[in-house]
Each structure stands twice: as structure tokens, then as C-alpha cells.
Design a protein that fits this description.
Blueprint (H helix, E strand, L loop, with lengths): L1 E6 L6 E9 L5 E8 L21 E6 L8 E10 L4 E3 L3 E4 L10 E6 L20 H10 L6 E5 L10 H14 L4 E4 L2 H4 L19 H6 L12 E5 L2 E5 L11 H11 L8 E6 L9 H6 L7 H11 L4 E4 L5 E8 L2 E2 L6 E3 L5 E6 L17 E5 L3 E7 L4 E8 L5 E8 L2 H5 L14
Parallel strand pairs: 8-9, 9-10, 12-13, 13-14, 14-18, 17-22
Antiparallel strand pairs: 1-4, 2-3, 2-5, 3-4, 5-6, 5-7, 8-20, 11-12, 15-16, 15-18, 15-19, 20-21, 21-22
Length: 430
Amino acid sequence: MTVTWTSGYGINEAEPFVEWGPKGGQQGHSPAGTLTFDRSSMCGAPARTVGWRDPGFIHTSFLKELWPNKMYTYKLGHRFLNGTCMWNQMHQFKSSPYPGQNSVQRVVIFGDMGKDEADGSNEYNQFQPGALNTTNQLINDLENIDIVFHIGDICYANGYISQWDQFTSQIEPIASTIPYMLASGNHERDWPGTGSFYGNMDSGGECGVLVQNMFYVPTVNRDKFWYSTDYGMFRFCIADTEHDWRQGTEQYNFIEHCLASVDRQKQPWLIFLAHRVLGYSSDASYADEGSFAEPMGRESLQKLWQMYKVDIAIFGHVHNYERTCPIYQNICTNNEKHLYKGALNGTIHVAAGGAGASLSEFTPIQTKWSIFRDYDHGFVKLTAFDHSNLLFEYKKSRDGKVYDSFRISRDYRDILACTVDSCPSMTLAS
């Protein structure tokens, strides 16, 4: 487990550490690394100008050799030069199941949440009216959630640095208790001349510095915000849509390795996550382009999704909810809508970018592959009951009730069954 927090104390003033251990058992100490950044780290205005606010110091500690699915307690500490300590309150978490562990595992996924003012006062941009509803639904149901993925457009600070502290305060009841994993979005990364795949100014001059320093993800180079992570029976492959993903790039090679290296006997549920829609979407902006997704997205990646039998691909960026049929090359590969038995023969694509930001309109065009659309704020939840049964639910943020769902029920052999695009050529004749 990785623990990250901020303080006003540099390492020359106090040593940061975490005191932790099994709940009710002996507690040990793990040191924390410390970093910060200054105004010159920003790429442009307003992050370098009126939006600048000193972030203080960011501390990260790694709690290692955890026993699977066990409750641990921890508290943050700073030891000053005179030997006295300052303590944070006690928190607790349950460690992850080991890869392949057959236990009930519950995952919440959404994009584009942001933050809002609980007292109703003015909010910068007035752009995220659903953020508190989503946050409160997760807080109220924490006992039934094991891990969260926030897939891009995290807080919409757009260069006003203090907004990050507002966001982290909002999610602290969640992120201090269960893993809070991120993907990078356009409002975190994009800025001209900084290596972004898109040359727009959506990050407000942050160019990825804030998200890369305030949140840890398991990648060697934190500017390359793509990574894989295992959680029990799940393998998650998280792409960074603000860097080039096309065939021949470093990220494309990572995506293929992430999909190809999973042991489907242990981790049968293979999930692809990214911010921008690289698959299918009926959002009006994409429909107006005639692309129904990010241009060049599925053209580059759909053969990988098909070859390695990705179950579900989930995206943000469009502020609505939509679910497709299992699909490959614009064709539904399974006509079922709510109970899938056996092989999907394609990948189900989901837009889940309605967690908080102002909603996006759908096109009036009725595509053959779109099963369910909702113009409202919400999030999705995956529940793996065992190696053969998965439940998908879409919940609205205003009431937490399920408005769309489906189940997958299958055997191990269904994932390994040979399809045309994943068969070795010498077996096609038979």
C-alpha cells in the first residue's frame, strides 16, 4: 500500500514516516520520501502566475509485505529535530487480495469528477455540479468498495494550484481507507510543447506536474502515466491518452505487454482503462466528427483488445454514461444485453465520464452498437464473485441506485477459445 500526504515540513525540519501494522497487533515504522515543486516547474499561466500557490511538501511511504485481505491501521508522523513527534489521526485499510485470490472483489470506476463547494458558495468554473453527490455515495458505501479508479480529469484545477488541496480534502475519507488509483486526463496534462499528444491548453499550465507529484502510480517514469495493476482476479491496464498510443510507440508496446502477460487462469477479468474514448461513444462531439470516438483510437488498439480478449474497456472524457454490446470492428459479436454466458467474442465499451462535470449531450443518431445511454451523473461498479461470475452496475450519483447492469458467466476455456484474430495462422484450416 502506498500512503501519500502533504505538510508544511521539509526534511530539514522533520522526518516523515508512517506508523502501521496489523489491526490490534504490533506497529512498525516506514520512512517516507519527500518532494515538492516550485513556480518554475509550471509550464504557463495561470499556474505560473495568478494560479500559483506553494504546495508545501509531498510525502510518500510504501507499506510492504502485507498479508492479503487483512486489516491494518496506520497514522502519519513527523519527528522533529528535538525528538518530539507530531501525529495524524489513526486510519485503517484492508490490504489487497493476492493475484488470483478467489474472494469477492468490488471495484468502482469513473472519470471527470472534480470538486464542489459543500456550502453552496461559488466554485471556480461552476463546472462540476455532480462531484459531491458522487463523492458522498462512495463515502456512504465504503464498506462495499475495495478499490477506486478515477480515470482522468481529476479536479479541474486548470492551473489554480490550491484547488488540488480542496479536491484531496474532499476525497480523503475515501482515499485514506481504500486505494484511489488515477489515469491522466487532458485537464491534468495537456499543454503545447511539453510532450502532450494534444497541443491544447486544458491543464492551465500544470502540464502534468501536479498529478504526477500528488498521486503515486506504479510506473518507472511518472510523466509516462501508463501502468498495469493487479487486484485479486482483475488485471487492469491503464493507458495515458495524453501521450501517443499508436502502433510503434512505447505506450502501444506497454499496452500489448500488459494484455498479453496476464494469466487468465488466475485473473480472468481483463479491464482496459483510459481517459479519452479510444473505443466507441455516441457523444455529440464525436458524432459531429463522424468518428464516434477519439480519432485513431480503436484503429490502433482494437486488434489488441480482440486478440487478448479484453472483457470491458472503460473511458471518461465524455460527461455521460453509455454501454455498448460486445463489439469488434463496429459489429456486435453477441446479441445478449444483460446476461452473457460463455465467450463475448468482442469487448464491451463503456463511457463513464459523468462523475461530476457538466453533462455532455448525445447525438440523436441511433447507433447499432449502443445498448444503454444516460444523460446524468453516475459511476460504474464491477463485482467479481469468483473466477467465472462478474456483475457490472451503473449507479446514479443522486441516489446510488442501479440503472443499468449486466452479468458475465463463463468457464476458463471460454477465455482461451480461439477466435479468428487471435488464432495462430496454421490452425485456421482446422
